[in-house]
Amino acid sequence: MAADNASSVTEFILAGLTDEPELQMPLFFLFLGFYMVTVVGNLGLITLIGLNSHLHIPMYFFLFNLSFIDVSYSTTLTPKMLMGFVAERNIISYAGCMTQFFFFCFFVFSESYILSAMAYDRYVAICKPLLYTVTMSPQVCSLLLLGVYGMGVFGAVAHMGNIMFITFCVDNFVNHYMCDIIPLLELSCNSSYINLLVVFIVVTIGIGVPIVTIFISYGFILSSILHISSTEGRSKAFSTCSSHIIVVSLFFGSGAFMYLKPPSILPLDQGKVSSIFYTAVVPMFNPLIYSLRNKDVKVALKKTLGRKFFV
Q1: Segments in 52-137 forming alpha helices (H)
Q2: Of 11, 65, 120, 188, which is most buried, counting CB atoms within 10 Å of its CB?
Q3: What is the DSSP letter of 17?
């Protein structure tokens, strides 16, 4: 069946974000700016964590991987979107489309689960501080990270399996700026409610399970914070978690809005706008949120810059 797909449809035409000619160049420079901030911000955070030994703790171990995931999946999507703003016809080959889709799914699922691992880390740090070193040992962190990327592989393989068993008709116009599951299913001749059900189940595992984990973690965290007698201690605990809550809200809010609603309720054109948040805005904001609201990162940045200027 996959071979039939490849022979009947060898390429797709991506609709892009908008078909308004006067908006193409302004949007090109806007998203180029987003992408540059994303790459510089995330690679900067990765470098900062790598160079400063006092940041070699579980919280920053997960933040290091979050930055890696963000810069990777932004790179999977944004360059092709930028080409769409300047090219007359934004064409992507069948193999290129499937490759982009696979890595997009892998990194989005990985991001969902790295955010839940970070929530668990904050839960242990605030609710069980005396057991933190033992509970979040290097071995445990490595196993959690293995689970994160394992779920990334699961999400990518499950969605790819769903796509491989459908046949594409003559129409190869994808109403999106990237290869995504819902617009690809719209082009299929033989997709059924079973395919949409698989999408819903896989996305629920990708979004629902991490959200439940995060809610439970923050339920316990909130309960512990309210039992802290000193105002300073309470304030410090809230500030530690606030960055993570902002990132989680942006990422899961836009993702759920796009995938966990029937297509009749959310037309694809509105879905494209929603997709912008978790594919372009969230990866750009993550390093800014975590660095601007984090005292340790600010100190590490000053140290690193001071060391550079001194040398």
Answers
A1: 58-86, 94-127, 132-135
A2: 65
A3: S
